[in-house]
Amino acid sequence: MNTVMVREDHVAVLIVDDHPLFRAGIRDRIQTADDSIVVVGEAGSGQEACDQIRALRPAVVLMDIAMPGMNGIEATRIIAGSWPEVAVIILSVYDDDQYVQAALKAGASGYLLKTVEAAELRESIVRVARGGSALSPSVMRTVLGHLSGTQPRPLRLSERERQVLELAAQGATNKIIAKHLVLSTRTVEAHMRNIFDKLHVTSRTEAVTLALRMHSIRLPDAS
Fold this sequence. Notes:
Blueprint: E1 11-16, H1 20-30, E2 37-43, H2 46-56, E3 60-63, H3 72-82, E4 87-92, H4 97-106, E5 110-113, H5 118-129, E6 134-135, H6 137-148, H7 159-169, H8 174-181, H9 185-199, H10 204-213
Parallel strand pairs: 1-2, 1-3, 3-4, 4-5, 5-6
Helix pairs in contact: 2-3, 3-4, 7-9, 7-10, 8-9, 9-10
């Protein structure tokens, strides 16, 4: 297997889908002329994806759900547990609640539909690589629709933790959150770890989803 050399300031991506033609199409759509996004490998199943991650250590994995053998949800769960520094974006044709909730619970940092525009996909890859999250508009509506029917329960986030999580819910990276709140990036990272511990979650997207369900944070213009 050939090794693709990637500079530290570039984003290494692994594409996981059981259809070779789709993988080729995604590769063409996301690789940039300046190599700021570089596809370092491809996989046709969840198990192959895990094997590739061990060898290639990508920053971002674009993951299909329906694949033979180990599916994308299970692969995402393994990746989140074994390589928490690797961000997973689910790239699927499904936007129903069952798949979205399972993906976020497994630790996915994003959930986009396969109809996503190339520019939005590239922006999402860069965002999750920097610690942000990415949801397609229809997926966000699905998430918020699910939350509207749930009963909130008490959650003890500090005021600063709430501010950090609300900015994260808007897609802000740790660096942007730090600048907005006049904090160090390390302090923001500490707040995020505390939030994860309090919510018993493993990803920013799951933390945002749970905090919205508990009415502990609000999105702008959500009402």
